[in-house]
Amino acid sequence: MSLDYQVFDPASCHFPPPRVAALPGRFEFAGADDAALLAGVPLLTGRHYSRGRYALGAACRLAGLADGGVLLAPAYHCLSMLDPALALGAEVLLYRLNADLSPDPAALDALAAAKPVKALLATHFFGFVRDFSWLRSWCVARGVVLIEDCSHVLLTERYRAAGAGCYGHFVAASPYKFFPGADGGWLYAPEPGALAGVDTRPANWRDELRGLKQTIEAARQPSVDASDIAALDGQVAALTGQAPSGDDRRQSRAGPSPQYRPHSAAVAALRSSRWLAGHASLTANIGRRQAHYRRWLAVAADLPHCRPLYPELPETVVPYMFPLYIEQPLPHFYWLKQLGAPVWRWDQIAVSACPVASDYRLRLIHLPCHQSLRDVEMDWLLAVLTKVMRSIPARSGR
Ligand SMILES: Cc1ncc(COP(=O)(O)O)c(C=O)c1O
Question: For the chain, what is the radius of gyration of the CA atoms?
């Protein structure tokens, strides 16, 4: 099927590469704290993939979407959330979300009343695990398969963040977002035997070596230091003279995006990525992510023209990123990117009637809070955000 997408194309902006890594790059061995955290926690079994999207692809196939049928998916999404179903030739209908990105039950009811639905994709955005027990009941009552998207959640064979992976018939995760491996996707099903017959093939040795090289290089990536913080005032002043640009247009496309490679769909995660995820410290991962998130919260509380999407961090949440709503993406997103901040945004999305998704497409930015960020990197990131949001007069923006 073809979908209409609204696409922001940054080509004309000439953004420099990010100066700080958006995903974790440094490895830290599990220690005694981890042994205590994991004591008595049963190992989960599942299937490893190179990315969460291929785990989602297997879930979509198991849900029967390869035979045609409808997937309900969140209106706010990245392309990799829709690609797996589109690659199978399924029809994707987008459901409305509330401002906190939870599914709107009335929207689900209306879509299910209009057409028979085979599967529902539900996402725990940014690591904030939701109670999906009501969604499970909703699905079971209608014979719909629930695919729980834990791509933003700390969920591995060894550990699952509180409340995650409990209600989906199939559960997909992206360990590479939480550990310093070159790849990693994971499929899990709470029902024993639900993954019987799901096979993957190991990656070849050339890819294993390439993955190791990439992991080592990522750990050595040059980054910022205190002199970069001192240089910010001058850089910000120079930016105010630039005219923000960027091309935003509507596009129609049939099938998945080029980010979905069918020949990778059944390839298992690299051995090195699995080893790293299996031996890295979880307590350091959880503690640092939470501490970094709290630093973002403390700074954003005093800044104009922006507000955190989730201003509270419950103790059980292991955040994936810090989602921040900015009122005026032009100029603020543009200037953050020009300064080399690792800012992500889902600015290519399939068009829907959801006002939250259309609002967040350009205004919700995703800032890193991962465990590998050093103090000076966090200091720099916070200084960049502060200076951009404060010292630059806000102008009208898209
Ligand atoms: C919410 C969500 N689900 C699924 C995916 C697909 O994950 P992956 O990048 O591991 O394929 C992504 C991608 O970032 C995502 O953000």
Answer: 21
How far is the C-alpha of 352 from the C-alpha of 361, rounded, in Å?
A: 12
Q: Kindly state whether residues 122 and 252 are assigned to the same domain.
A: no
Q: What is the pLDDT of residue 393?
A: 56
How far apart (Å, rounded) are the C-alpha atoms in residues 134 and 361? 27
For ligand 1, atom 13: residue with the closest CA: 80
51 in contact with ligand 1, CB cutoff 6 A = yes
Residue 260 pLDDT class (50, 70, 90 cuts): very high
Which residue do the tokens 């967040």 mark?
360
Q: Which atom of ligand 1 is nearest to the CA of 77?
A: 1
Overall number of domains in the chain? 2
Structure pTM? 0.97
Q: Which residue has the tokens 């190992």?
A: 43
- 181 CB burial (10 A radius; 0-12, 13-18, 19+): buried
Phi/psi of residue 284, each to 5°?
-65, -40
Report residue 44: phi and psi, to 5°: -100, 145
Of 371, 201, 181, the residue nearest 279 (C-alpha): 181
**Distance (Å, whole) CA 149 – CA 153:** 9
Same domain as 159, residue 294? no
Mean pLDDT computed over every residue of the chain: 96
Asked whether residue 118 falls in the same domain as residue 255, the answer is no
Using 50, 70 and 90 to split pLDDT, how confident is the model at 67? confident
Tell me the CATH number at 175.
3.40.640.10
Same-domain pairing of 175 and 228: no
Share of the chain above pLDDT 90, in %: 94
What's the sign of the alpha-carbon dihedral 120, 125, 127, 130? negative
174 lines ligand 1 (CB under 6 A): yes
Q: What CA–CA distance (Å, rounded) separates 336 from 358?
A: 21
**pLDDT tens across 144-174, in order?**
999 999 999 999 999 999 999 999 999 999 9
CB atoms under 10 Å from CB of 186, counted, come to 27
Please count the residues of the chain. Answer: 398
- Ligand 1 contacts CB of residue 273 (under 6 A): no
> pLDDT value at position 398?
46
What SS3 class is residue 72?
strand
